[in-house]
Write a structure and sequence with these properties.
Layout lengths: L1 E2 L18 H13 L2 E5 H6 L12 H6 L8 E4 L10 H4 L1 H5 L6 E4 L5 H8 L3 E4 L7 H10 L5 E3 L3 H9 L5 E6 L22 E9 L2 E8 L2
Parallel strand pairs: 1-7, 2-3, 2-6, 3-4, 4-5
Antiparallel strand pairs: 7-9, 8-9
NADP nicotinamide-adenine-dinucleotide phosphate (NAP) binds next to strand 1, strand 2, helix 2 and helix 8.
């Protein structure tokens, strides 16, 4: 996750991409290469025009040694399923993972049935929850596929839900040298979270950008 100095999770154009910089993008590429699966909320997938993860230029050999496909598959979380089946997120997925691994869509029982069937043509649609996604059920499903190291790329709604459910054990957080002002979303959205306790694991500076890694104490 990334924010401006004053805590905005979105740049002035309403996207997080504009807060990022080349070093942050390199870091994101490494985190993706270390992950078994990338989990993202549909809001972020839509705003940032998500496609499948691309293989890392250097780390694909390391993945192969651990029996992983060249790139981690993508898993999108959505209630409304307003995701276009012709999006590269679905149509280019197998090419990128180098395996018969389609993009997964985790949705809820209350999602529109016709959109579910349309997406099922191009993705693995999994129901995991009634009105809200059940994070434990999502992780259990991913584990049955051998996908245990889950990189959640947000956005703020999904990440807040993951934290509230007690499933975030590590946070990689970048602070970029920008002030954005206004009433911006933070990296976590929604109701306040009480009793969350984190320990700084490392902090690295590059061109006035701070790259931090935090570990949950409990
Ligand atoms: N600063 C950062 O590091 C960072 C990272 C990622 C994204 N962003 C920014 O955040 C903005 C998007 O924010 P957002 O909060 O809308 O993103 P989000 O969490 O990615 O997406 C929200 C959507 O995800 C689905 N969703 C989330 N939680 C769910 C749950 N518990 N159960 C079922 N579905 C759930 C719903 O999809 P449906 O609407 O399809 O039902 C919901 O509307 C974009 O501007 C993006 O650029 C910032």
């Amino acid at each position: 996750m990334v924010s401006s100095i004053d805590g905005a999770a979105q740049g002035p154009d309403g996207r997080s991409g504009t807060l990022s910089n080349p070093a942050d993008q390199r870091l994101l590429g490494v985190l993706r290469a270390l992950a078994d699966v990338v989990l993202v909320g549909a809001g972020t997938a839509r705003a940032e025009h998500y496609g499948p993860v691309e293989p890392h230029p250097i780390l694909t050999d390391m993945r192969a040694r651990y029996g992983q496909p060249p790139a981690a598959p993508m898993a999108v979380v959505s209630r409304r399923l307003e995701l276009h089946p012709s999006s590269p997120l679905f149509t280019h997925a197998c090419q990128m993972t180098g395996a018969e691994q389609r993009t997964m869509v985790f949705t809820v029982d209350a999602s529109p049935v016709e959109r579910r069937s349309a997406l099922a043509e191009v993705a693995d649609v999994i129901i995991a929850g009634d009105a809200d996604i059940d994070v434990k059920a999502v992780r259990e499903h991913l584990a049955t596929r051998g996908l245990r190291r889950v990189l959640c790329e947000g956005g703020p709604q999904l990440l807040a839900h993951v934290v509230r459910a007690g499933h975030l054990d590590e946070l990689c957080f970048t602070m970029t040298p920008a002030l954005t002002g206004g009433y911006a979303t933070h990296i976590l959205d929604g109701e306040p979270i009480i009793g969350s306790d984190w320990q700084l694991a490392h902090i690295i500076e590059d061109a006035s950008t701070l790259f931090t890694r935090w570990l949950a104490r409990a």
